[in-house]
Amino acid sequence: MFNVDRLENLVKNGLNKNLLTKFLSIEEQKYLQSIKYLKIYFSNTYPEEERKRAYLASEDIDEPIDFKIAILEFFYPEGFVQISHRDVLGALVSLGIKREVVGDIIISSRNFILVIEEMADFIINNLSMIKNAKVQFQKATVDDLLTVEINNYFEDQIIVSSLRLDNIVSEVSNISRAKACEMINNQLVKVNGIIKTNPSGRIAYDDIISIRGIGRIIIKEELKKTKKDKTVLRILKTK
């Protein structure tokens, strides 16, 4: 589960002075939205923004809020290698960068990452390789971001015997169910931002499953049943 104590400390500090958080997961945002005695504003860098920063205040804020988000565009020789969301995140983590300082990673006709402002120059100056490909970063604008169709997911299908979590992790990750259970027991799998440790837990449609080292998937719908009564699911996977 996400760190409730950390969020409670943010709320407590927000009662004393206005406070800007780092990037929050969807589940962390939902938690803050449940707090009724604080004014909480979320970044809206672009319409599809998933990971957001929050501004906590004890009173209404009438002026525009600067969420201090830097947009970095990166370039690499796409003809020789294809870089995924997972590759970018892995390269950032290998530099010692914490997940909370990184917002959305956008893989499209142009590629961007959102980070807290104070990390921008460090990334530009230090991240030069992703997946054995040389990369270059430069600062970009919201206008640059809005020139591309932003869709961090591609559509796929999987066949499962049931909507158990271990079944889905096994199929998506192309590993055995025993290995999937091990990953779940080791707290490497989240559902809607919350760590799940029960391999037999059932998944619902539109649930977001995050698998460490694999990425995120969204279970969209049942397409059909096979002759052996297995379920064909339409899913979305991070690129």
Question: Can you tag this structure with a few keywords?
Answer:
239 residues; alpha+beta; Alpha-Beta Plaits; Structural Genomics Hypothetical 15.5 Kd Protein In mrcA-pckA Intergenic Region, Chain A; 6-stranded antiparallel beta sheet; 4-stranded antiparallel beta sheet
Provide a brief overview of the structure:
The chain has 239 residues and is of the alpha+beta class. It has helices at residues 4-16, 26-33, 85-94, 120-126, 142-145, 165-173, 177-185; strands spanning 19-24, 39-42, 52-57, 69-75, 102-106, 111-116, 129-130, 133-134, 136-140, 153-160, 189-191, 194-195, 208-211, 215-225, 231-238. The radius of gyration is 19 Å and the shape is globular.
SSE arrangement:
Layout: H1 4-16, E1 19-24, H2 26-33, E2 39-42, E3 52-57, E4 69-75, H3 85-94, E5 102-106, E6 111-116, H4 120-126, E7 129-130, E8 133-134, E9 136-140, H5 142-145, E10 153-160, H6 165-173, H7 177-185, E11 189-191, E12 194-195, E13 208-211, E14 215-225, E15 231-238
Antiparallel strand pairs: 1-3, 2-3, 4-6, 4-9, 5-6, 7-8, 10-15, 11-12, 11-13, 13-14, 14-15
Helix pairs in contact: 6-7
